[in-house]
Each structure stands twice: as C-alpha cells, then as structure tokens.
Write a structure and sequence with these properties.
single chain, 266 residues, 8-stranded mixed β-sheet, two-stranded antiparallel sheet, globular
C-alpha cells in the first residue's frame, strides 16, 4: 500500500510539471474540449442530485458481502469480504470534483450509447447518466450486492435509462457488446490491472466510431496501469488523447494529427 501511494505521488509531481493550461493549446479541437469541459465552472442543477446520492451513500452503515474481481483480489481470481456501504463507497468512489467532470464529459459527448465498466455503488454511474439522460446506458458490476446499492441510488434520483449487467467482466462483456451497435462513450473503471484493461479496451475498440470517447480511470494507479495507458496511446485506432492524471481520455478522430496532451483539469 505504501509503495502504491509513493508511486502515485511521484507520478503526480511529474504530471504537475508536464501539464499545460488551456491558453497554451494550439489544437482547436482540444481547446474547445478543454474550454467547454475541463474549465467549465457552471453550477449545473444536476450537481444537487449528485450531492444528494453522495451524502445518502456515505451515510449508509449497512454491512454487505462483496466480491472483488479487480486489482484488490491480489493473485486470486476474486476475493470476498464484508464491509459497510459507506466504507466501500469512500474507498471506491471518486471525489465530487471528478464526479462533476464525468457529468460534463457525458454532457459534452451526448452519446446515444454509453457503457461503464465498474458501477460500484453508482456515484460515477449517476454522473454519466445525468449528463446524457436520453442515452442507452449499460453499466457493469461484478458484485450483485453492490449493484443493488447502485440501483437504489438510480431510483433515488429517478434515473431510468440505466441497465445493470452483473457478473465478472470476463464472462459478461462480450454479451453486453453484442447488444450494442456502437459505443459512443465508455468509462473503464472496473479492473486496475494491465492485461484486463487492455483486453477490455481491445474488445470495446471494435465498436468505436470516429466520434467515440473512451475514459480510462486511474492511469497512474500503478506501474501496470501506467504501462497500459502508454500502450493505449499508441493503438492504431487512437487519434488523440488527453491526460488529466486521474483519467486518460481517448478520442478516435481521424481528421486531426495524432497527438497526446497532458492538461490541468482545473
């Protein structure tokens, strides 16, 4: 744990040194994205709904048994343990600032079809769903008891466009993708290891269009995730990427020069 914290801290120092501000951008496309998404300080009414379920979940003292198929399972295929909902949420959820960023990305992209890998208790799910309330939205969660918490959060804000897919991604992703004609927006937040991240990315790329946007969470979680991000940037279908430290944002546009930007998220 200490080693992971030190790694991420070191990478953050490097990121701060490399990150550019909005006024140093020469790409019109990236400048527009940074202006309308990263630097947008509008107090959207949807933020009140995000705050509502955030407080609701952080105060939930119920104990559930959860299954973890991701990096926290160590060398095993999965691990199980009992934990309070509030504790699980604090461990797995993003800051409110990052939740609002996910909302703005979703609002900007306006996807017809949205996929999230890693529902957890549904805070990021709500952010993406509120940004694109008309989208068809599949969100995937490995653990049924955690998915129940996410569903209750969707019900609390009246969000009805979210369909939960429950089970190990290795068994459920292919079936989920078969239901979808294309992928307009994808949030990868389910397995913080190199090989699964790259495997899931490669499967989803087959459904990407020129206007698709993929968001990779925790690109500096570990050396493995940093390596995965480096490989994703060089993928033949990737047109442009933006690194805001917590997220790596991938665009597939073919009408612009392949470039990689490190930007402040404001």
């Amino acid at each position: 744990m200490i080693q992971a914290i030190l790694f991420k801290s070191k990478e953050y120092v490097s990121y701060r040194f490399r990150a550019k501000g909005i006024h140093k951008l020469h790409s019109p496309f990236v400048f527009e994205f940074a202006s309308k998404v990263l630097a947008d300080t509008t107090d959207y009414p949807e933020y009140k709904q995000l705050s509502k379920i955030r407080k609701r979940t952080f105060s939930n003292r119920n104990v559930i048994e959860t299954v973890d198929f991701g990096s926290n399972s160590g060398n095993k295929d999965f691990s199980t343990y009992r934990i309070r909902v509030k504790t699980l949420t604090k461990r797995r959820s993003h800051s409110f600032k990052l939740q609002k960023l996910l909302f703005r990305i979703s609002r900007y992209v306006q996807p017809d079809i949205l996929l999230e890998m890693g529902t957890s208790t549904g805070l990021s799910t709500a952010s993406l769903a509120l940004g694109s309330p008309e989208a068809r939205f599949l969100t995937m969660e490995g653990c049924a008891s955690v998915a129940q918490i996410a569903q209750s959060n969707m019900d609390a804000i009246g969000q009805q466009n979210v369909e939960l897919v429950i089970g190990n991604f290795n068994q459920t992703l292919m079936g989920a993708l078969e239901q979808l004609a294309q992928l307009d927006l994808v949030f990868f937040d389910g397995n913080h290891r190199k090989k699964p991240t790259l495997d899931y990315f490669d499967q989803c790329v087959l459904k990407a269009t020129e206007n698709s946007v993929f968001i990779i969470d925790d690109i500096y979680w570990s050396k493995e995730m940093k390596e995965a991000w480096s490989e994703i940037k060089t993928h033949s279908k990737v047109g442009l990427t933006i690194d805001v430290f917590q997220f790596g944002i991938v665009f597939f546009k073919t009408d612009i020069e392949k470039q990689h930007f490190v930007l402040r998220k404001h």
